[in-house]
């Protein structure tokens, strides 16, 4: 099952990012030293001070709201 992190936008919308729940491996640490930083779902959630399930539920709810809003706006265009 895909998991998502929701980032609010300045205009009140949101961007959903699909993420993998992974841990950075030793070989990836070399890339990090070169300026590339990788983070799994747990890292981002820990930064936000939330539980993984809370973030996934928020993302799912926001996604459903966004889909409904998109459908509503498209339906209004045809009416």
Q: Percent of residues in beta strands?
A: 15-25%
Structural class: alpha+beta
Number of helices: 3
Shape call: elongated
Secondary structure: helix percent:
40-55%
Largest sheet: 2 strands, antiparallel
The neighbouring-strand order within the major sheet is 1-2
Radius of gyration: 16 Å
**Could you name the ranges where pLDDT drops below 50 across 5 or more consecutive residues?**
none
Summed up, the domain count is 1
Mean pLDDT: 73
SSE series: EEHHH
- Give a count of the beta strands, DSSP E runs of length 2 or more: 2
Query: How far is the N terminus from the C terminus?
Result: 36 Å
Task: Report on this structure.
There is one protein chain. With about 80 residues, the protein is of the alpha+beta class. The protein has one domain. Helices cover about 55% and strands about 15% of the residues. The protein has 3 helices and 2 strands; from the N terminus they run E-E-H-H-H. It has helices spanning about 25-35, 40-50, 50-79; strands at about 5-10, 15-20. A two-stranded antiparallel sheet has the order 1-2. Strand 1 (about 5-10) and strand 2 form a beta hairpin.
Give the tags.
single chain, 79 residues, alpha+beta, two-stranded antiparallel sheet, 3 helices
Describe, in short, the structure shown:
This protein is an alpha+beta fold and 79 residues long. 54% of the residues lie in helices and 15% in strands.
Write the layout of secondary structure elements.
Layout lengths: L2 E6 L5 E6 L6 H8 L7 H8 L3 H27 L1
Antiparallel strand pairs: 1-2
């Amino acid at each position: 099952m895909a998991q998502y992190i929701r980032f609010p936008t300045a205009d009140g919308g949101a961007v959903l990012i699909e993420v993998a729940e992974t841990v950075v491996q030793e070989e990836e640490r070399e890339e990090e030293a070169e300026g590339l930083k990788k983070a799994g779902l747990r890292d981002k959630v820990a930064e936000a001070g939330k539980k993984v399930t809370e973030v996934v539920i928020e993302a799912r709810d926001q996604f459903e709201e966004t889909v409904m809003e998109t459908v509503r706006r498209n339906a209004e265009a045809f009416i």
